[in-house]
Amino acid sequence: MAHSDDKQQFLAQVFTVIHQIPPGKVSTYGDVAKMAGYPGYARHVGKALGQLPKGSTLPWFRVINSKGEISLSGPDFERQRSELVAEGIPISSSGKISLRCYRWQPGSM
């Protein structure tokens, strides 16, 4: 994905998908990549979220890894955890979330 137009298209698609994740639900990096039309680009979704500007309104914190865990550490882990807890999503102390209960499936609520 070296070409700048391709990268902008990828980011636009990814951010559109993430904006649709409803409060109280989560999605995985891989699910977001797939829904954006880029299956296999889960790692790129994570990188894109890591470069969001401070104060972004994108609900980045609703995106977790395929094991149902928060991938971040330190203060970023705590920030993501507190955002999810505030939306009513129970999280274990290690950062695990039940994908069975909280995974967002488009077209369902």
From TrEMBL:
Keyword Transferase carried by entry: yes
Keywords: DNA damage, Methyltransferase, Transferase
One GO BP annotation of this record: methylation
Gene Ontology MF term list: methylated-DNA-[protein]-cysteine S-methyltransferase activity
EC code(s) of this entry: 2.1.1.63
Methylated-DNA-[protein]-cysteine S-methyltransferase DNA binding domain: residues covered: 10-89
InterPro entries: ATL_DNA_repair, MethylDNA_cys_MeTrfase_DNA-bd, MethylDNA_cys_MeTrfase_DNAb, WH-like_DNA-bd_sf
Pfam families: DNA_binding_1
CDD domains hit by this protein: ATase
PANTHER family in the record: 6-O-METHYLGUANINE DNA METHYLTRANSFERASE (PTHR42942), ALKYLTRANSFERASE-LIKE PROTEIN 1 (PTHR42942:SF1)
Protein name as annotated: Methylated-DNA--protein-cysteine methyltransferase
